[in-house]
Predict the 3D structure of the following.
Amino acid sequence: MRKLLIVLLLMLCCSTSVFAAKIPDNVKNFVDTTFPKTTYRFDGLITLPDNTIYLPLFPSNFYDDAELTIKYTIPANKKLSDKPDAVVFNNNFVLLKVIKTKDGKNSIVNMPSPPYELRSGLLPQDLLVPKGLVIPESLKGIMGNLEIGTTPDLKIEVMKPKNTVQSVAGVVVPELKDKTFYISSPYSKNIQVLTQGHKTPDYALEQENTPISIAVYNNQFLLVTSYDKKTLDVISLADDAVIRQIVFQTQPDEILIDNNKKVAYVSSAEAASIFIVNLENMTLSKQIKLNGMCEKMFLSEDGSKLLYNDKQTREIWAIELDNKYLLKDIGRFPNVSRIVYAGNKVYVTSRTKNHLAIIDYDTVNLISELEVCAKPIDMLTYKDKVFVLSAGANAIQIVDVTTDKIVDQIDLQTNGFATRIYRIDGTNLAIVTDSKSSIYSIINLDNNDIIATNPLDIPVSSITVSNKVKKIK
């Protein structure tokens, strides 16, 4: 019985490693020595800096040798830098290069009698392979239960938008020339993919349900929650396809990403919880039970505190993420539109009172209350400033965190109704969206200047930005 249990545990470990597709560290280190900027997707796909793709083949007999070396290559006697069609290591781990056939299809090395290491290995069972991949008959056994076809089950449709009028060009901001905008709109279920300066999207990612929240991680993945859908969809930006659906028992709502910790915080008001998603393997790792129904989440810049509003009681809470998820009651405020944290203070806007409340985080005492422009709807923190966006006046007021005084104001000079202000990661720029006028403005957060106001075909409900991604074809 004891031997049987050991065997079952070993089988479980092996099957889990293949499913989770964790590339062994010594293989990663070996590849990185030759190709330092290689990316390893959580499902196992390996992409070299020049976009060459390798599929990992997990061995049935795994030998953990002290020093990893190449046993042989196909063609023979090649170095990894030569990017051979197959690389077999001395631990039986195999890398298979995706190659093009004469008719332009994606495939892997084809041979009448493949060596044992290739025949006995197994592809990760949650791998999203390049589109139209053809597996040679002699290597069909490496698929296991993996469904490989030209149309994966979770594929999302990519559509070119219908454009009946000539697109009006907007201002191109040099700092954003290599960026791509992903936009959701109240007038469409689909996510629009836009090059900055263009009015008409380049194409759209078709969705079955209307998105609630969208967020980009690591310029590789687009995370999406949608109404009436109990999954968090993970879209590979290189494939324009849903690569994983993380299942929830309740409706997932807002998404916040901590790039440093490589996690996403996903709220579920229905479950009175915030869920932590491990972004390295795209799995749920923890559920934080809350007081009340969470909305309007905000993550502090250092990732130590997450604040939210209880939509039922109007109570504001802080979660101390580095202190065993301690919940701290900040107080009750009317008609909260946004919460931010800066300088060890909590800033809260009330849409109906046109007030900005400033609370000391440690004592939870009210420091002061400022009168702001009509209908303050969103806020953003940057360095020692808080930017307060007011829809009624279509203006942004800048509050100095050190003095808690309004020191400047940016008039958007549009006839619209501003809705959100988003920081563009890694830059000193922010985007202001508008739900009425089908425009967006780009703000320099250092100079408090508008540097562009560009038209769009449809109004924006949310927007996120990534670097342009090389597509896997």
Observations:
- Helices lie at 2-20, 25-34, 116-120.
- The first helix runs from residue 2 to 20.
- Residues 2-143 form one domain.
- Residues 1-19 have pLDDT under 50 and may be disordered.
